[in-house]
From TrEMBL, chain A:
Keywords: Amino-acid transport, Cell membrane, Membrane, Transmembrane, Transmembrane helix, Transport. The chain crosses the membrane at residues 25-48, 69-95, 186-205. GO terms for cellular component: ATP-binding cassette (ABC) transporter complex. Pfam families: BPD_transp_1. Belongs to the binding-protein-dependent transport system permease family. It comes from the Bacteria. This is Amino acid ABC transporter membrane protein 2 (PAAT family). SUPFAM superfamilies: MetI-like.
From TrEMBL, chain B:
The lineage of its organism: Bacteria, Bacillati, Actinomycetota, Actinomycetes, Kitasatosporales. Residues 19-208 form the ABC transmembrane type-1 domain. Keywords: Amino-acid transport, Cell membrane, Membrane, Transmembrane, Transmembrane helix, Transport. It comes from Streptomyces brevispora. This is Amino acid ABC transporter membrane protein 1 (PAAT family). It is a multi-pass membrane protein. Its main location: membrane. One of its GO terms (cellular component) is ATP-binding cassette (ABC) transporter complex. It is found in: Cell membrane.
Amino acid sequence: MNEGFDWNAVGEALPLLLQGFKVTLLATLLGTVVAAVLGLAIAVAGRAPSRFVTVPVRVVMEFIRSTPLLIQLVGAAAVFSSVEPLTIGVVVLGIHYATYTSEVYRAGIDGVPKGQWEACRALSMSPRRTWQAVILPQAVRNVLPALGNYAILMFKETPFLAVITVQEMVFEARAYGADHFVYTEVFTLAGVLFLVASYPTSLLMRKLEKRLGH
Amino acid sequence: MSDFFSAFMDDLPQLRSGLWVTLEATVLGALLALALSFVLGLMSISRLLLSRGVSRVVVEFFRGTSLYVQLFWFYYAMPPLTGYELSPLLCGVLAFGLNYGAYGAEVVRGAINSVPRAQYEAAVALNMTPLHRMRRVILPQAWVQMLPSLTNLLIQLLKCTPLLWLISAADLMTAVEKLRSRTGETLTAYVTLLVCYFVLAYALTLLMNLLERSAKRRLGLETGGRSLLRSRSGVTAAAAGGAR
């Protein structure tokens, strides 16, 4: 079985994998948007004055965060079998990561000086206006690098989507590998593509983080 | 629903052995990851450029390529390339250990760097050997810093074990999947599975909290009993172990 590395197969599989890579990027992008928006909503809900809101929010979040993404994906795809896989993938990925990003936002909101809240009260601003005009603009700026980190993490977990037949990069790699029996080449190629995409991004995030003084 | 649970009772032996495989993969993977974290983490603060470089390359490599790809590489790509065939469980342990070891190395490095500089200087002034210094002064303090992040990584590792199902290891997910296809109770099956994982994750968190408390006690830091039941915080996952 030891036939060495088949470069022809790499050349042939590359266009297919790049095709899948577009889906990978799309899923990451949409998932990040869902996670960023929903995470913010959870963080704000977690600061609600009533315990009837905050306690259930915490319990659900803890549950989602402590259970495997793969099962959530497979389960959601099986229950909502009529929905398109990519949509399910993006929503489940987004919800899963929202439980993490909400903690990031929470830290960001905690980082806004207490005097800002007091000033808003003194000016008798409505809660809505307080969040919108004063708290969030200050909080969100500080959390951007951390959100970027989660986007990179999510990017590396997109292969999970292949399990629910989203045709992203690893799905294509597996399909090509199964057809031509060249698993070594396609999985090595997929790994290299991941590395090439994620390493520069994480370098960039680190730079951004340093500039914002974290 | 009751169908599912009667089938659940019938399948208990398989479920138990599945749970065992999942735990085995988690514990062995975590041990490998812990060992690697220390080796790579200590290498990355070494004075030798070569050792720093090697550690950097290994860490970036295993963090940059997806865990999923690594697992499949060990399972599908390694046999034709090298002639060695690994058992699915071993593939899992290797992939989990290497991947989380790379993340853990950053945790170890960060924690050691966070020990105040004066502690090094005091240890040097007391004429301790480098090994003694590390073992008696630096590591006990760094260990307390590391534990919360390591707990997060451990739970993330546990959460990756259903991947074993894809490479046909007979883990917990495999056992429940079989049950599901036999009874057709999709929602119940997956919710049960999620609850199992949640219980496992919480149990591991409690164990790690105990470990953290004993580590703190060794430094003379007292912690209240309430902190033992505390769940993990998401922020440390991002700050220390998560991405970057």
